[in-house]
Design goal:
By secondary structure, this protein is of the alpha/beta class. It has one domain (4-141): 6-pyruvoyl tetrahydropterin synthase/QueD (Tetrahydropterin Synthase, Chain A, 2-Layer Sandwich), CATH 3.30.479.10. 20% of the residues lie in helices and 34% in strands. The protein has 2 helices and 6 strands; from the N terminus they run E-E-H-E-E-H-E-E. It has helices at residues 60-75, 104-115, and strands at residues 4-15, 28-40, 78-82, 95-98, 123-131, 137-141. A 6-stranded mixed beta sheet has the order 4-3-1-2-5-6. The longest helix is centred in the middle third of the chain and has 16 residues, at 60-75. The radius of gyration is 17 Å and the shape is elongated. The two termini are 17 Å apart.
Length: 142
């Protein structure tokens, strides 16, 4: 038996995909919805094996704080560009230069590295899902 918690986060971000041959090579933005799911590392027979004191796998407040500190505060209202982009030298803006194209897929892989080692003992990242639009999303199952 496994327990899993998921929390949703919303943020706005602009980006450019310099290697993309279509419209997305231009600066544009999205209202992202990020879903972060965690689960217990080991299967358990009863929920009391999760946390004897609180009965929680992980406090939603702690998960919120972690994701906001590592991802939301950094990426919200930022302009994200790959390092090979001609826009990488723009100044006077909240800009993040990454060594990869800032696609949904690559962002999820990067976000996983930001969160993996910061979760409480006994808790692991299960999945990340990001909606770029209402009907388009990518999901990473770890």
């Amino acid at each position: 038996m496994k327990l899993r918690l998921t929390k949703q986060f919303d943020f706005q971000m602009a980006h450019t995909l310099s290697a993309y041959p279509g419209k997305c090579r231009n600066i544009h933005g999205h209202n992202y919805k990020l879903f972060v799911a965690v689960e217990n590392e080991e299967a358990c027979d009863t929920c009391t094996q999760i946390n004897y004191n609180s009965g929680m796998l992980m406090d939603f407040t702690a998960l919120k704080s972690l994701v906001e500190n590592e991802i939301i505060e950094v990426f919200d209202h930022a302009f994200v560009v790959p390092q090979d982009s001609p826009y990488a030298n723009i100044e006077n803006t909240k800009k993040i230069v990454l060594p990869f194209q800032p696609t949904c897929e690559n962002l999820l892989l990067y976000f996983a590295t930001l969160l993996n080692d910061k979760l409480p003992e006994g808790v692991r990242l299960y999945s990340l899902k990001i909606h770029e639009t209402e009907t388009s999303f990518a999901e990473l199952i770890l």
